[in-house]
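Internal tracking record. Fields below are filled automatically when a chain is submitted to the structure queue. Please do not edit lines marked as system-generated. If the sequence contains nonstandard residues, flag them in the REMARKS field before resubmitting.
Queue: standard
Priority: normal
Entity type: single polypeptide chain
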Amino acid sequence: MSEAAQPQNALKRPDFATVIELLKPVTWLAPTWAFFCGVVSAGIVPSGWQWLLAAAGVMLAGLVCGTSQAINDWFDRHVDAINEPHRPIPSGRMPGRWGLYIAIVSSALALVIAALLGPVVFVAAIIAVALAWAYSAPPFRLKRNGWISAGAVGISYEGIPWITGAAVMIYASSGSAVMPDWQIFAAALLYSLGAHGIMVLNDFKAVEGDRQMGLVTVPVQLGTQRATQVACITMIVPQLIVIGLLLSWGQLWHAVGVSLLLGVQIGLMVRLLKDPKGYAAWYSFVGVTPYILGMLITAFAIGSIVGGGA
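SYSTEM-GENERATED OUTPUT FOLLOWS
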């Protein structure tokens, strides 16, 4: 829908289904899974009201992700008019400036929920929401550079939720704002780096529109073949470091589990590299499964360390 036509619908309200579509709940899996891994890595089994705090944390992770989707769709509405004109905003089903209003309200709501879950969680939420706006909105618009944007998404989808999950459980059990152990930070950072490669593959679906709009994603810069090679290396190396850390921590069987799952990923990557453009979406669905299962195994290993074997 053109900018000239938008004011005619400015007073209309989007229906509930369109709002949900804008927030894209299907994308919430990554941060909520990372949050769950954080809960596990804290080595604390929730009990009683602690389950409510954990549930609130899961809701927070999903809400921040939904907020980032709304922000991105608002500031990318011109790109989406080329790549995906059926989306809520370019199609006109999300009229006027409603996309922006929803992004602002959900940002504020996320910070309110985070404040109730403790100081560490609140700081993490501030960082996550700030990254969500910086990713899509001017003047920063981090997504203009694919190397920076993929890293920002990796940190937001994996690292911050992981640390937040651990912080929620620590706060629930001790009542004080204690920073999670360094092993938790290490795992969160490494899996965030690996997610950089996953985000590179995610950019394959919009190469033509990104090129026209001047968004310099990794596939636009390197071409699909080289971008796929970079993505695969970026996913493999952090997991190799995780395996090394698990071995150094005496977690042999957890290291074996992550190694086997990495082997599955490498096998799938062989197929991906034969036809990157054709298999990018396929790998983003199939190949990510063993990746996130490795995250959970790593979380259990760390939980057994920091939780004293609990």
